[in-house]
Every structure is written in structure tokens, then in C-alpha cells.
Amino acid sequence: MKNLTHIFRENDEKKTEKIALDNINLKIDKGEFIAIIGVNGSGKSTLAKHFNGLLLPSEGECIVDGMKVDDSEDIWKVRQKVSMVFQNPDNQIIATVVEDDIAFGPENMGLEREEIKDRIEFALKSLHIEHLRKMPPHLLSGGQKQLTAIAGAIAMRTQCIVLDEPTAMLDPQGRNAVMKALKELHEKYNITIIIITHFMEEAVQADRIIVMNDGKIIQDGMPKDIFKQKENLKKIGLSVPLAVDIVDALQKKGLKLANLFDNENLAKELQQLICK
Ligand SMILES: Nc1ncnc2c1ncn2[C@@H]1O[C@H](COP(=O)(O)OP(=O)(O)OP(=O)(O)O)[C@@H](O)[C@H]1O
Ligand SMILES: [Mg+2]
């Protein structure tokens, strides 16, 4: 994104304008795992919708793999490279059987039957949901529905999946299943993952965190660097992972602990200290 600004113009009498994105410059490389965080209304969804041209820049440009999203000839190619998964799992499934739903994208691309079958198999397998293939979506849990939506993206062979709060409506088990699947897609198949989340425990699992506030990117870095400056985050109304607060409190009590920020590593570290 180069100097990208997005302005929502309301067609009311006052002709109100909202600058939702304010001169964004951002480069995302193939194979990155990125979390975008920020308070409500900071511009996260608006940013995400530019990645596959669901929204177009008011000023500046968004280029995906050399293609400009606002070039109408390229938009379908862009959408084959970048797909989006949204918050509500119920709004994303069209067919009455899981495997038909996964087939929907490839069928629209006009692919051969055999190719479609292969892609469905790969999508089901890569997300470990082969057992769901014949299920009607209304019998799935929220997490299983989100995995089905992600499988649809995989079947399109998209290189990048953008997920806008995909776990917001899920229970902890569903949240874990989705995060685990995303990590595996990233590690095994080098798929670029961009996840918007309000859960800091999820953000911490990314390789890079982008912090948005009032339409701007105010921080961009590795989780350990972002959460090191926790006061900055708290100032704009964001929380930090529980582990960061626990480490902080224990350090203040004089315990020699490294700056850990994820539950798993903290648990290991504390276990070692206790067993000493
Ligand atoms: N269709 C729209 N028309 C007018 N204003 C909009 C529209 N969509 C978003 N906005 C405004 O743009 C700003 C950014 O909204 P956006 O949805 O990108 O925020 P967000 O960071 O995704 O918030 P949330 O965490 O609540 O999902 C907000 O002030 C919002 O009110
Ligand atoms: Mg949003």
C-alpha cells in the first residue's frame, strides 16, 4: 500500500466524511503471518477489505503481486490470490453439504471435475476436516464452519488469506482449532496469513503485529517488541496478553524472568523455577 487513504462519504445533507484510513504505507511479503490489532473503529476492517479490492482506495494505491486492485481487469486475478474470511461463520457457507461448499469457488472458476475433486481433497486434508465432508453446515460447530470457510479459500489456491475477526463468535475450543489450522497452513504451505483480532493471545502467535489507531498504523513489529511497550498499547485502550502482565508483576516482586508473552512459554519457565 502506497500513501493509501480511504474516505467514507455519507450522502446525507451534511455530506459527512470519515477518513477511515489515513495515508497508509505498508508492505507485506509472501509467507508472512501477521496480526492486525486496534480498538473499535481504528480502521482494521477497512484496511483488510483493500487487500482483495472489496474496497478501493480513495487516494494512493494497493498493489497485490504487481496488480493494482482498482484496475478492474485485474480484480478477479487479485481475488484468486487473496481471499477473505469474516467474523460470522453462518454468513459464509452457501451449499447444503460441506464438500459442495468447498467446491463452489473452483466450480465458478470453470475447472475440470477431476481438478475440483483434487482441490476439495487437499483443502479437507490440510485442515484435518475430512470427516466433515458430507455434513450439512447447520450441524457444524462455529469453529467447524470457520474451518469450512477457510477450506473454501484453500480450494481456490489463494496464496493469502485475510481473516477479519474469524474467532470472535467462537468458543475457546473453536478459537484454538482455527488458530492451529492457520499456523499449519502458514508453516507447511507458506500461505500468507493476515488475521485481525481483538484477542491478544492470538496476536502473540503471529510473526508480526500491526497496531492501528484512528486510521493510521502506529506500530509495526514483532510481538516481543510490540508488547514490551505495553503502556503504549494501554494508552490507546488495548490490553496485553495475560502472560505479559503476569511476567511484569513477578518481575516487580524480584523474580528473574525473561520477557515472555505467551502462555505456553511462561508455563514452562514457571515450572522450571518451581522445580529448581
Ligand atoms: N460503510 C461505512 N460508511 C461510513 N463509515 C464507515 C463505514 N465503514 C466503516 N466506517 C467508519 O470507518 C472507521 C473505521 O471502521 P472499521 O470498520 O475499519 O474499524 P475496525 O477497526 O474494523 O473496527 P471494529 O474493531 O469495530 O471492527 C470507523 O469510524 C467507522 O465508523
Ligand atoms: Mg472491523
Automatic annotation (TrEMBL):
SUPFAM superfamilies: P-loop containing nucleoside triphosphate hydrolases
Superkingdom classification of source: Bacteria
GO terms for MF: ATP binding
Entry keyword set: ATP-binding, Cell membrane, Membrane, Nucleotide-binding, Translocase, Transport
Residue ranges occupied by any ABC transporter domain in the UniProt entry: 2-239
PROSITE patterns per UniProt: ABC_TRANSPORTER_2
Family per record: Belongs to the ABC transporter superfamily.
Xref: NCBIfam families: ECF_ATPase_1
Name the record gives this protein: Cobalt ABC transporter, ATP-binding protein
Organism whose genome encodes this protein: Megamonas funiformis YIT 11815
